[in-house]
Amino acid sequence: MAEVEVGRDGAVQTITLNRPGKLNAFTRTLHEELHAALEEARDPAVRAVVLTGAGRGFSAGQDLTAFGEGGDVAAMLRATYHVNVMAIRSLEKPVIAAVNGVCAGAGLSLACACDIRLASDAAFFVPGFVGIGLIPDSGGTYFIQRLLGTPRAFEWMTSNRRLTAAEAHAWGLVSEVVEAETFSARAAEHAAELAAAPTRAIALTKRLYDEAATATLEEQLEHEAEAQAEAAQTDDFREGVAAFGEKREARFSGS
Ligand code: T3D
Q1: Is 235 a known active-site residue?
Q2: 60 lines ligand 1 (CB under 6 A)
Q3: CB of 137 closer than 6 A to ligand 1?
Q4: Does residue 146 have a pLDDT over 60?
Q5: Architecture, CATH, for domain 199-246
């Protein structure tokens, strides 16, 4: 059985982490299959991606049975989690983490590397790392600090406190909480909305917010000017302006 399943519905690609018996904990194979799925998502015909988990987990992070055998941890992180986190960030389309259930350790980092997080009301969030004497890796100190601010991020990630979906929403960690029964339909609906949007403008916006994390104002204004010049060359810009003038809904093609 594949450890990652990939489905396509129109312009939406859904990537499902698929080790439900182990809450989709990461193995080498799962990393490799996730990477292949993210490569597949580079297809221009894909205009939005959903990342989710099978069973009652999103992901419980690193598989702890395939861990601590004296290997080079830094090299392992570079070869696996880093590659997939960077693949998500460099994907020129929105990636939704549809957090269907348990989300812990590097599974939490991965969800936070995505552009949008929706949570099922059955989901809960656990730092995990500190529970086994580790630091938050795979972007856990980067994304969670940006989402929550340093004081809350530090307090949470050093406490190993279990957060409910409602608490995660109140903290701004997830943008929406949906009943478990309708969760996958809502995630698909949200992804379809994004897939019908002007994909180039969304991709450029994604890149700009990443650049803004380290740029000065002057640098960022320049990045915006360059990106806007690019967006203004797209068919979607022409279509958006035409639709406005004709008082109709725009039909964006993603080009
Ligand atoms: O070198 C490196 O790898 C560094 C990289 C580190 C990255 C990391 O992600 S470190 C953090 C790793 N993750 C954790 O520490 C979380 C461990 N899991 C838990 O604390 C709990 O399972 C949860 C709080 C996430 C969920 O609890 P609960 O009660 O809902 O489920 P459970 O009964 O504990 O787990 C269900 C099954 O999944 C169980 O298997 P079994 O007994 O039914 O056969 C459990 O052992 C398995 N499982 C859960 N998490 C992992 C796991 N198996 C392997 N690895 C896991 N991380």
Answers
A1: no
A2: yes
A3: yes
A4: yes
A5: Orthogonal Bundle (1.10)
Q: Tell me the pLDDT tens digit for each residue of 158-183.
A: 999 999 999 999 999 999 999 999 99
One fold for 4-195 and 199-246: no
Q: At 100, is the secondary structure helix, strand, or coil?
A: coil
Report d(CA 16, CA 9) in Å as an integer. Answer: 14
Segments making up each domain of the chain, as ranges: 4-195, 199-246
Q: What confidence tens digit (pLDDT) does each residue in 35-61 have? A: 999 999 999 999 999 999 999 999 999
Nearest Cα residue to atom 40 of ligand 1 = 22
CA 76 to ligand 1 centroid distance, Å = 19
Query: Does the predicted model carry a pTM greater than 0.90?
Result: yes
Q: Which atom of ligand 1 is nearest to the CA of 71?
A: 1
In sequence order, the 6+-apart residues with CB closer than 8 A to the CB of 250 are 198, 236, 239, 240, 242, 243, 244
Which CATH code fits 4-195?
Answer: 3.90.226.10
Q: What 3-state DSSP class applies to 126? A: strand
